[in-house]
Every structure is written in C-alpha cells, then in structure tokens.
Amino acid sequence: MHRNTLLACLLGLILTTPVWAESETIPWGSLSKQEQQTLRRFHDRWDHLTSERQQRLQKGAERWTKMTPEQRQRVRRKFQQWKKLPPEQRQAIRERFHRFRQLPPEQRRRIIQRRRWFKSLPPERRHELRQRWSKMSPEQRQHVRRRLRSMSPEQRQHQRRRWQNRGGHADQRPHRGMQQRPSHRRR
After folding, report:
1. 15: closest CA among 70, 54, 69, 71?
2. What is the pLDDT of residue 81?
3. Would the pTM count as exceeding 0.85?
C-alpha cells in the first residue's frame, strides 16, 4: 500500500464509517462543545444534511477530539496532500479503498500487517523495495502475489525474515548458477 492508500483509509474511516445507530437526525445542540467546534463549518447547513451524514460527521468529530496534537497535525498534512492530488487519482484511491472494505476481515488484517511491516523498514530499504517492485513486469508482480498467497502465515513470516537478512526482494531467488545444491554430491 502506498501512503495515498493510507490516506484514503483514514479519509474513508472518517467519511464512510458504517452507522449502526438509528437513522434519526442529530440536533446541533446535542453535539458536545468540542464536536460543535470541530464541525462549525457545517453549522448553517446541519439541519439539511442526511441523518447518515450527520452521524458520520459526529463520529469523525468524536475521533478528532480524542487525537493528540501530533495526530491532528499529521491528519492535516495528509489532507492537504489529498487535496493536491488530481481528481482521477483521488477517485482511484477511493475505488481501491472501497475494494479493500469489501475484502474479508482476515484478508484486510493481513494487508494491514504487511503495511505495518513495510513501514517498520528503514526508509532506504522501503525505497529500494519500491524501486524493485516498479521495475518488475506485471507477470513478475503477479507471480510474487501468487507465491505469497500460497504460503502459510508462518512461511510468509519466515520468508520475510530471510529476505530482510539478505537484503533481497520479496521474490528474489538465487541466480541459476548460484542455486543451492545438496551438500552431498554424486560421483
């Protein structure tokens, strides 16, 4: 996942959080002072918003008030980056996020874990992996995906450690002349 995907996930959480509450409108006066302050730009049109939109905005405002100043600053930066993206790219991110939300919970969890693993790598290493991935053909990328999907979580974890230790790419294999041979030789 690229950082744009992370931004889309964040925006999606704020804007598309499922609503389980009843479908009643929320009176402006029932919002906390902090929520009203956060949502002040919606004050004049609040009564004209759908109940679902009001509930999503209230939940987003509630999350916002619980964030640390550093988290808020990070969200502001990400939102500025989002606004600078071309409309086509924002739409593509929205579509990827929608597809992500449609995945089974286990698959979403794996994707999130992989993202965390990737983000835990040093910046130089992430850059190197991105470069290698971008140079791969679509067929090579598909091969990597299939290979990873066919592994158990334990095998994937073991393989990641091996790749990290040798500084290789996720699908890097020894060159033909360097393939490991059995320790016993036929004579």
Report:
1. 54
2. 95
3. no
